[in-house]
Amino acid sequence: MSQTLTGNTRKVAIVTGGSRGIGRATALLLAANGYDLCINYLSNTAAAESVKEQVQALGASCLLFQGDVSDEECVVALFNSVDARFSRLDALVNNAALMLPQISIEQVTQQRLQRMFCTNISSYFLCAREAVLRMAFKHGGKGGAIVNVSSLAARTGSPHEYMDYAASKGAIDTLTRGLAREMSREGVRVNGVRPGLIYTDMHRDGGEPGRVDRVKELLPLGRGGQPEEVAQAIYWLLSDNSSFTTGDRIDVAGGS
Ligand code: NAP
Question: For residue range 104-115, what is the model confidence (pLDDT) as tens digits?
Fold first, then answer.
């Protein structure tokens, strides 16, 4: 149910990679439910501006932050800009990630691995660090919630397609578990969401725009998922409705 909150009673969330796909759907759902937003994105300013307009139309304030979250200086600047604009932080959605064209083990290069792991793993650690520095009781914070967007690929391993991507998501599941324990008495809950095949641009970037339709019949539900269906799980894990849940994860994967 949509809440009407004003002034500093609204919570503040950062969504990395919030300009498209799952991040965009999450930002809109949060905006409709009492959050002001900082939406981070890499380069697609038109998409980011469009989300900002939609977020504002829902009554939320919105700060856009363009920058690469695999870069430490950029992450620090992102969180500093949220301090300057909102003076509070309640939620982090670690969501920005990339997928590279499909390969098998014979085609793996160090350059590819560095890019993949920097973007998909380091960024989540760095953003989590900055969030904890603002949320944890021991740092003077009031608590908060972090959701790490992982992938069902962490379970399947994505053979002949994206083993590097799958491995990066395995690392994120481990981060979720460990950080939840580190933060368990600090007021910060940390959980994960593992989407399956979702209709977003990510599959185009992975070299196969029609991938969801090619494999959807293999899923028990017989269809691909929509970003909005993933956003619902992220929102629930950020909300007080999941107050006894930490270190856990929800698979949103059509029964796979
Ligand atoms: P997407 O549609 O490709 O959108 C990616 C978003 O991340 C965009 O906003 C992009 O910004 C941003 N981004 C990419 N690299 C970045 C960087 N280095 N720094 C800052 N922002 C960056 O992706 P999606 O499919 O919604 O995926 C979102 C999350 O769900 C990812 O963690 C992904 O691994 C996970 N997931 C997706 C699927 C699926 O089927 N789609 C399945 C399982 C898991 P620009 O718009 O500027 O490029």
Answer: 999 999 999 999
Around ligand 1, the residues with Cβ closer than 6 Å are 16-17, 19-23, 40-44, 47, 68-70, 95-98, 119, 149, 151, 195, 197-198, 200-202, 205
The answer to whether residue 55 sits within a structural domain is yes
What pTM was computed for the model? 0.97
Range of the domain at 55: 5-251
> 256 lies in a domain?
no
Q: For residues 48 and 167, what is the distance between their CA atoms, to the nearest angstrom?
A: 29
Ligand 1 atom closest to 94 (CA):
32
Rounded CA separation 214/231 (Å): 23
Number of domains observed in the structure of the chain: 1
- Region 125-145: mean pLDDT is 98
Taking only the tens place, the pLDDT of each residue in 38-48 is 999 999 999 99
Task: Give a yes or no: residue 232 inside a domain.
Answer: yes
Q: Is residue 186 within 8 Å of residue 142, measured between CB atoms?
A: no
